């Protein structure tokens, strides 16, 4: 109608949006800028320089911690993606079974469980079964943490797919497994990739659970950074954080694009 006010951004909305974005991202922007600071003092600007990036690549302890974090993140994300995808298929495509509600609740528990409780419970488990803490214990812990996120991503995509594609494939003689692999798996592949990248990012960022389950010689980068900043923030830490912010941003953008591609393919298949 002509007399109805058109929706738009008022001055108040713009101000609130600017304050919110500033509160969230201004500290990150400052960190990135000061990672190029030539001064040894974190809060004193001494000109533009790549000095601290060079320091990072010459710091063997930091490089070892970074490599450990990348290895743990890749291994745990891969395991979480496999297990989470299978769980999503069971919940979305499988017949209703006894204990489904309990299985679903236990699967999604890490989403709401405090990380301190999860880390402590895993530590007690590893101590009880006398497992030496190190790379594999951290990997198992991160798989436990991230599997539920992969399940949520993949299950939501499975629930939005038109099952008539699988039914048509079975009418043509395919078994249920082959029908799923041929008709549905290509459509959910971007969601599986998005789940992997989300799990990778969460593992790379974790400090609490890793601090409970790590052992000598297997400290991840967040643990190493935390131990360093307790003695004072070094400009090198700013450079490290900037590199990982860039990596995580790239993964998040890739995951978002993968989800959009998956949704677009599903919509096109449904129209066809």
TrEMBL record:
<feature type="transmembrane region" description="Helical">
    <location>
        <begin position="135"/>
        <end position="158"/>
    </location>
</feature>
<keyword id="KW-1133">Transmembrane helix</keyword>
<dbReference type="InterPro" id="IPR051789">
    <property type="entry name" value="Bact_Polyamine_Transport"/>
</dbReference>
<keyword id="KW-0813">Transport</keyword>
<dbReference type="InterPro" id="IPR000515">
    <property type="entry name" value="MetI-like"/>
</dbReference>
<dbReference type="InterPro" id="IPR035906">
    <property type="entry name" value="MetI-like_sf"/>
</dbReference>
<dbReference type="Pfam" id="PF00528">
    <property type="entry name" value="BPD_transp_1"/>
</dbReference>
<keyword id="KW-0472">Membrane</keyword>
<feature type="transmembrane region" description="Helical">
    <location>
        <begin position="72"/>
        <end position="95"/>
    </location>
</feature>
<comment type="similarity">
    <text>Belongs to the binding-protein-dependent transport system permease family. CysTW subfamily.</text>
</comment>
<keyword id="KW-0812">Transmembrane</keyword>
<feature type="transmembrane region" description="Helical">
    <location>
        <begin position="179"/>
        <end position="199"/>
    </location>
</feature>
<feature type="domain" description="ABC transmembrane type-1">
    <location>
        <begin position="66"/>
        <end position="256"/>
    </location>
</feature>
<protein>
    <submittedName>
        <fullName>ABC-type spermidine/putrescine transport system permease subunit II</fullName>
    </submittedName>
</protein>
<feature type="transmembrane region" description="Helical">
    <location>
        <begin position="12"/>
        <end position="36"/>
    </location>
</feature>
<dbReference type="GO" id="GO:0055085">
    <property type="term" value="P:transmembrane transport"/>
</dbReference>
<feature type="transmembrane region" description="Helical">
    <location>
        <begin position="107"/>
        <end position="129"/>
    </location>
</feature>
<keyword id="KW-1003">Cell membrane</keyword>
<feature type="transmembrane region" description="Helical">
    <location>
        <begin position="237"/>
        <end position="258"/>
    </location>
</feature>
<dbReference type="GO" id="GO:0005886">
    <property type="term" value="C:plasma membrane"/>
</dbReference>
């Amino acid at each position: 109608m002509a007399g109805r006010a058109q929706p738009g951004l008022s001055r108040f909305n713009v101000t609130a949006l600017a304050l919110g974005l500033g509160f969230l991202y201004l500290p990150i922007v400052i960190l990135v800028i000061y990672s190029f600071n030539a001064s040894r003092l974190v809060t004193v600007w001494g000109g533009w320089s790549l000095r601290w990036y060079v320091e990072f690549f010459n710091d063997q302890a930091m490089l070892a911690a970074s490599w450990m974090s990348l290895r743990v993140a890749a291994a745990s994300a891969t395991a979480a993606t496999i297990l989470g995808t299978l769980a999503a298929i069971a919940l979305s495509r499988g017949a209703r079974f006894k204990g489904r509600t309990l299985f679903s609740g236990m699967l999604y528990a890490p989403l709401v469980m405090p990380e301190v409780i999860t880390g402590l419970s895993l530590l007690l488990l590893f101590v009880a079964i006398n497992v030496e803490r190190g790379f594999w214990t951290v990997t198992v812990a991160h798989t436990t943490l991230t599997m539920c996120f992969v399940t949520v991503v993949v299950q939501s995509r499975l629930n939005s797919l038109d099952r008539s594609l699988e039914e048509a494939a079975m009418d043509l003689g395919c078994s249920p497994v082959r029908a799923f692999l041929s008709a549905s798996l290509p459509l959910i592949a971007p969601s599986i990739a998005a789940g992997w990248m989300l799990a990778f990012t969460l593992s790379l960022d974790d400090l609490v659970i890793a601090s409970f389950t790590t052992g000598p010689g297997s400290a991840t980068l967040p643990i190493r950074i935390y131990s360093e900043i307790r003695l004072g923030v070094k400009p090198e830490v700013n450079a490290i954080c900037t590199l990982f912010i860039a990596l995580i941003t790239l993964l998040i953008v890739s995951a978002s694009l993968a989800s959009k591609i998956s949704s677009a393919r599903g919509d096109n298949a449904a129209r066809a």
